Amino acid sequence: MKQLSPFTKGLRDGIPIGLGYLAVAFSLGIAARNAGMTAPQGFLMSWLGMASAGEYAAITVIAAGASYWEMALVTLVTNARYLLMSFALSQRLDPKLGLGHRLLIGYSVTDELFGISIAQETPLNPRYCYGAYLVAIPCWAAGTALGILAGNLLPTRIVSALSVALFGMFLAVIVPPSKKQPVVGLFVLLGFGASFAASRLPWISTLSGGTRTILLTVLLAAVAAILFPIKEDADA
To answer: Which residues on adjacent β-strands are paired with residue 124?
Structure first.
């Protein structure tokens, strides 16, 4: 049997991810539609952003009427984990690989694409990443645009019902790590409680939703890092 080229293998591995992205991004598109975004705007946002949590955070602050800097900062904080993923992938690349390839691979990292890329043999062939990106990223952008279009056509009650799917996606993100690490579950609950309290307390409740999200994210992350630091492997 003929061995697949790295690019073809990436295309193959990217198909199931792309199909999953199409479904999840549809729900994201409905949220974007509720925030007043058009299909071209949603498509461009997802093509350039490629991050469900980051985009949803951006949509939330857009709907709240927040400023550009608030939107940029909350997206940066929400997507900070991709910096670490990019650093990890950079260690798997050929040291002679050019800067252009490195920037493109780092820019296009998502949780799922990182998972399949980091599992490949070292050195990681960039063509494998490009094959997976070629399927997954257009599906993500198209799903968002389709969600916005469907949100404009479907009755309000159905749109509201479909919007629940997005919350299900976030539950799927936070529940598994919370089960494995009780500390994560604890801070998820603290985040819920702190967010509710911040919306009711004097002064802080007068801040925009985007600003409150930024402050709580940084504060809780700092407390978690100080009280429960991740121990480095002694053999690393």
So the answer is: 93
**Domain map of the chain by residue range?**
6-165, 181-236
Most confident of 2-6, 133-137, 146-150, 159-163: 133-137
CB 175 within 8 A of CB 53: no
- Express each pLDDT in 178-192 by its tens digit: 888 888 889 889 988
- Sign, Cα dihedral of 141, 215, 180, 106: positive
141-156 residues labelled b (16+ CB within 10 A) or e (exposed): bbbbbbbbbbbeeeee
Handedness of CA 166, 171, 133, 19 (dihedral sign): negative
Whole-angstrom distance, CA of residue 190 vs CA of residue 131: 40
Q: How far apart are CA 144 and CA 202, in angstroms?
A: 37
Residue 68's φ and ψ, nearest 5 degrees, are -65, -40
Structure tokens at 152: 């404009």
pLDDT range class, residue 232, cuts 50, 70, 90: low
Give one DSSP letter per residue of 142-194, joined into a string.
HHHHHHHHHHHHS-HHHHHHHHHHHHHHHHHHHHHHHHH-HHHHHHHHHHHHH
- CA 42, CA 147: separation in Å to the nearest integer? 9
